[in-house]
Amino acid sequence: MVNEKSEQIYTITTQSEEATNIAKPKMVSIITCSIKPEICQRMLNSVNQTIGVEYETIVFDNREKRFGLCAAYNNAAKEAKGDYLCFVHEDIVIETEDWGRGLIKFAENNNDCGAIGIAGGKYANRNFLSWCVPNHLIKVYDGRGSKNDLIYHYINPNNEIFSKAVCLDGVFLFVKKDIWENNKFDEKTFKDFHFYDADFSFSISQRYQNYVYFGMDIYHFSPGNIEKTYLENMYLFQKKWKCRLPYCLSGYNVSFRQELGTVNNIFYLYRKNGFSRIEIFKRIYKINGILFFVFFLCKRIKILLFNNILLSRSNKTSPYIG
C-alpha cells in the first residue's frame, strides 16, 4: 500500500502475477509523483494487474516538498533498479494486459528507440505551444469524473502499433534507464509542472527516435489546461531550443503560415492570461527575429483596424436608448 507518512521517496518492489512463471525479464521501475495516496494506490493496483513483467514502484511523496516534476522524477529515478523507467501520472488507470512485455520487446528490438508515450506530435515548430500539433497521435480516455464520463481520443492515421513522434505527453513516458541517465529532466530550467515532458522527449529525439504506442488503454482522470505558468514554461522551452526548432520527422515541414497561425494563438493565450502587449511583442521578436515580427505586427494592425471598422459600423446602426 502507499505509505501515509509524508516521506520524500518510498519504494515498493513487487512482481506481477503474470511474471512469476516466466524467465526473469528486464525489470521496469514505475515512477510517479504523488499528492493523493488513494488515487496513487488505484494506479498502482492497475499496474500490478496488467504490466506482465517484473517491476518495482517508486513513489515520490510530494505533499509537503512540492518539488517540480523534473526534480521529483530525477530524484526518484536515481533510486530505480529497473532496466526501464516508466514515468506515469498518479491519476491514470491501465486496463491492457502485458503492456510491459510489449514495450520491452519493441525497445529491445529497435536500437534507435528513445522514449515511448501514448500521445505525441510529428513535429515541433519554432513557436512551440504543445505536442498537440495538427499532425499529432494519441490514444487515451481523458476527462473528469468516472470512466463513463471520459472522452476517447484516438488518432492513428497509419493504423500502426508504434508510430514515430517528436515530443510526447507526460502522462506516460517509458524509456531505458541509460537514456534517462544521459537526458535527465531539466530541473534547472523547468521548476514546476509544465514542459518537463516536452523538454525531456525533445532532448531524447536529438539522438533517438521517440514513439507513440497504440497497444494499450489508459484512462486519465484530469485534463490539462493552459494558464500563466504554462505559458512561462512554454517561452523557456522556445528559448532553450531556438537553434533546433523547427524540428520535423521526415516527410513533414512547418510552413510560414503555420508558424504565423501558432503565434496568433499564442498571442491570444498570453493576453487571456494577463500578459501586456509589450511583453508579448518582446517575446515573439526574440524567438522569431525582425522579419517575422514585422510581418506579424502588420497582421495584428490589420486585424485591429478591421475590428475597429466593424465596431464603428455596429455603433452607427444601433438604436439609441435614452
Q: Could you give me the name of the CATH homologous superfamily of the largest domain?
A: Spore Coat Polysaccharide Biosynthesis Protein SpsA, Chain A
Order of helices and strands: EEHEHEEHEEEEEEEHHEEHEHHH
The level of helicity is 25-40%
Question: How do the strands line up in the largest sheet?
Answer: 1-3-2-4-12
Reported by name, the CATH topology of the largest domain is Spore Coat Polysaccharide Biosynthesis Protein SpsA, Chain A
In the CATH scheme, the class of the largest domain would be Alpha Beta
- Based on the coordinates given, report the CATH architecture of the largest domain: Alpha-Beta Complex
Structural class: alpha/beta
Please, what is the average pLDDT? 89
Oligomer: single chain
- How much of the polypeptide forms β-strand, as a percent range? 15-25%
> What's the total number of strands?
15
Distance between the termini: 70 Å
How many domains? Answer: 2
Unreliable stretches? 1-7, 17-22, 318-322
Write the layout of secondary structure elements.
Layout: E1 9-15, E2 28-34, H1 37-50, E3 54-61, H2 69-78, E4 84-88, E5 92-94, H3 99-109, E6 113-117, E7 119-121, E8 123-124, E9 136-142, E10 151-155, E11 162-165, E12 172-176, H4 177-182, H5 196-205, E13 209-213, E14 218-220, H6 228-240, E15 247-248, H7 256-272, H8 277-288, H9 290-317
Parallel strand pairs: 2-3, 2-4, 6-13, 9-14
Antiparallel strand pairs: 1-3, 4-12, 5-14, 7-9, 8-15, 9-10, 11-13
Helix pairs in contact: 8-9
